[in-house]
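Q: Could you fold this chain for me?
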Amino acid sequence: MRDALVAAAFQLFLERGYEQTTVDDIVALAGVGRRSFFRYFPSKEDVVFPDHERCLADMTAFLSAGGDEDEPVQRVCDAARLVLRMYAENPTFSVQRYRLTKKVPGLRAYELSVVWRYERALAEYLRGRYAGRPDGTLRADVVAAAVVAAHNNALRSWLRSDGQGDADTAVDHALGYAQASFGDSPGGAPATEQEDVVVVISRRGAPMWRVVQEIESTFGRD
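A: Sure. Below is the predicted structure, expressed as structure tokens.
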């Protein structure tokens, strides 16, 4: 029933346009009553995004199942890939929805609210992992926003190409930027907080001013 309603809705959206299609039109084509429609979808907007609630639940469960041994940024990147998987399951439908959303401002606003919920789910997980770190909350929010931005950049490029090409490779490449910028090193310290170690070798008995001069030279100081 749910799939039939979605199929009927998109058939009408493509034929008549989103604004010109009513819930009554959708249920008439699907051969069901209005009550059946609202049992599955609170509004006409929701029928355009029928799978996001499930995906958000899957993402939240995936993050909750993680342990302390999981690198936090890697974990949220893997969670973001669940969204890609949802889109890639039905490329034709995903491309149609992308085109429709671009044309209807109300749907664009709805989509942004959905993206914000994904971002909040990632941020909540990261806040727990970064608890106790300096600026842990700030770091969590920034990393979550970066991961979502990287994922969506690659996803929308794939959708603009009508679903052609390898979406997984494009998203992996984009998420790689977030991991390189914010991911933790194997030792557990944030990569952005790693410091260079400089080793200066000098002969025994060299005067201290010469040793200091070598160090200053290494650091590029006068």
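A (continued): The chain has two domains: 1-48, 49-193.
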